[in-house]
Write a structure and sequence with these properties.
alpha/beta; Rossmann fold; 12 strands; globular
Length: 299
């Protein structure tokens, strides 16, 4: 991608776009969704977060983009503390994310959906848009051009004027990604971008993620291990709301704690005691459901 691409922030290598998470703890009532989670994502790399269902992955992503406020811990991006910032302020700092459920507006065309992602970069104010002043017309043309470039980047430019409901699932996922990219993020958070994609689409997604990491920091949650092992430079593994492993893809594949988490065998906790995985998974699932209910109420 070139520096004018809507798929990445326009920043030089001197800018610190690293993410640092320290001691994040989230409780929903008496349930612990995240327990003293610490991790880091290096600038211009793909960092993966994996783990069984209910491990706390999406809750962590919601903390990173301001949808959930932790009870403890700090988050810094580029050396700037983010823990108390609201989501709209984070967007202006260059933080964008995709959603598990795609979240496109059925009443807007594909290109209009992508334009929504660029509102943080809109130059025209509210009254200019409402009154249809020349400045807002120029701004709309600029945002539409940016949206078209983002759609072309993800390979769905020919569907710009289509309605989202007329597209296949894989194409809608690409539109959702274009909506995040049009904001020219410095930090891109991807929540299960490969869900529902075919094997051929998966290879294209991997190539795209690798190219995006040349221009911005990418953090991805995903269940497709073949994708994660091929595109990530660093992977963190969550289980029961805790980080149980971290390292390169090769190190993660060889870690017995990761195997135990995914195969459901008994695991040894940090205090040296054994915990039955099936029972713990049920508790973790309850925490995940509580997290989802909390997030729906807060949106």
């Amino acid at each position: 991608m070139n520096s004018g691409s809507p798929g990445a922030g326009e920043h030089t290598g001197a800018v610190d776009d690293s993410l640092d998470v320290r001691g994040i703890t989230v409780h929903f009532g008496g349930l612990v969704a995240l327990d003293d989670v610490s991790l880091s994502a290096a600038a211009r790399q793909v960092t993966g977060i994996i783990g069984p269902n209910g491990a706390g992955k999406t809750t962590l992503l919601n903390v990173l983009c301001g949808f959930v406020r932790p009870q403890a811990g700090t988050i810094a991006f580029g050396g700037r503390q983010l823990s108390r910032m609201r989501p709209h302020r984070l967007a202006r700092l260059g933080i964008a994310r995709t959603l598990q459920g795609i979240g496109l507006f059925s009443g807007l065309t594909v290109v209009e959906n992508v334009m929504v992602g660029a509102t943080s970069r809109s130059r025209a104010g509210f009254w200019s848009g409402l009154l249809g002043l020349p400045r807002s017309d120029h701004d709309e043309r600029r945002l539409r051009d940016d949206a078209m470039r983002a759609l072309e980047l993800v390979g769905v430019g020919e569907h710009a004027e289509a309605m989202p409901d007329t597209l296949a699932h894989g194409l809608r996922k690409r539109v959702a990604l274009a909506r995040a990219l049009v904001a020219r993020p410095r930090l891109l958070l991807l929540d299960e971008p490969a869900s529902g994609l075919s094997d051929s689409e998966l290879a294209d997604l991997g190539d795209l993620m690798t190219s995006l990491a040349e221009q911005c920091t990418v953090v991805v949650i995903e269940h497709r291990m073949d994708l994660m092992m091929s595109v990530c430079q660093q992977i963190f593994v969550l289980d029961f709301g805790k980080v149980i492993a971290a390292g390169t893809p090769e190190q993660i594949q060889a870690d017995p704690a990761v195997t135990a988490a995914y195969l459901g065998s008994d695991v040894v906790t940090s205090d040296g005691t054994e915990q039955d995985a099936a029972a713990a998974d049920g508790a973790s699932g309850n925490a995940a459901r509580a997290a989802g209910q909390h997030e729906e109420a807060s949106q």
